[in-house]
């Protein structure tokens, strides 16, 4: 644990989908900031590996297996088990889990794929928040951080289903900020652009033209996205409610027309 920056010392956290990828990185960063963390996912071996990694750094974590596609009863059981494992209190919920949706034309997307994607990526955070936030409200204290995406902000051909789930997560962030904020529970989101993970490594050179249009010219690292989550979950974000914090190298902030400024001469503000 990084004792000089233990801003979450004494806090407890549940991170969904934390056996790998961004979720594992978020769990490690929260533990590094002092939080006692529940790791969740379907794969026990990977979950226990994340716990071992956190413990080797002096942090505290426990793995609770769950398959969010198995229905609402599973989600209730997770909340009970996780709360017990954390000593009876959950201070921070990170709604990170999402179903991997391959880009596809809308006409090719099946009803089953829509149900699964919205089930894991939208219904899961919805039900978890409904189960966990009331106890936070009673204590007048708690933080929820949702993981959205650049795909929930900008439309892209082939991304209708994934983008719709992420736009839903962004809206839920604002609705819950309105609902729970007055009771002292802060709800915010982080919206990453492409993150350098095993999954995005599969894109290979195909992602280069996309990154060429991004101000930073690169993907985010897991650590960069995770530190935004730690910030929003912690005391330094005490008066931040309902924000969607983009960690995307500026991709959603700027117009993709650098050459247009010189071409347009005296008309630099088209549209
Ligand atoms: N990677 C990117 O470039 C990127 C960009 C923008 C936003 N995001 C968002 O960041 C978040 C994490 O993405 P990622 O790339 O790290 O994903 P990932 O590598 O596919 O990891 C997904 C995690 O969710 C768990 N999971 C998946 N389905 C589950 C289910 N039915 N029940 C329980 N656990 C389940 C997986 O664990 P098990 O396999 O052990 O169940 C794994 O721990 C997502 O919300 C994603 O939309 C990612």
TrEMBL record:
The domain of life for this entry's organism is Bacteria
Please give the Gene3D superfamilies that the UniProt record associates with this protein. Answer: NAD(P)-binding Rossmann-like Domain
Pfam families in alphabetical order: adh_short_C2 (PF13561)
Keywords of this entry: Cell wall, Oxidoreductase, Secreted
Reactions it catalyzes: a (3R)-hydroxyacyl-[ACP] + NADP(+) = a 3-oxoacyl-[ACP] + NADPH + H(+)
GO MF term list: 3-oxoacyl-[acyl-carrier-protein] reductase (NADPH) activity
Cellular location(s) = Secreted, Cell wall
Q: Name one GO biological process term.
A: monocarboxylic acid metabolic process
Q: Where are the transmembrane segments?
A: none
User: InterPro entries under this entry?
Assistant: NAD(P)-bd_dom_sf, Sc_DH/Rdtase_CS, SDR, SDR_fam
Q: Which family does it belong to?
A: Belongs to the short-chain dehydrogenases/reductases (SDR) family.
Name the chain's protein: 3-oxoacyl-[acyl-carrier-protein] reductase MabA
Q: Which organism's genome codes for this protein? A: Mycolicibacterium vanbaalenii (strain DSM 7251 / JCM 13017 / BCRC 16820 / KCTC 9966 / NRRL B-24157 / PYR-1) (Mycobacterium vanbaalenii)
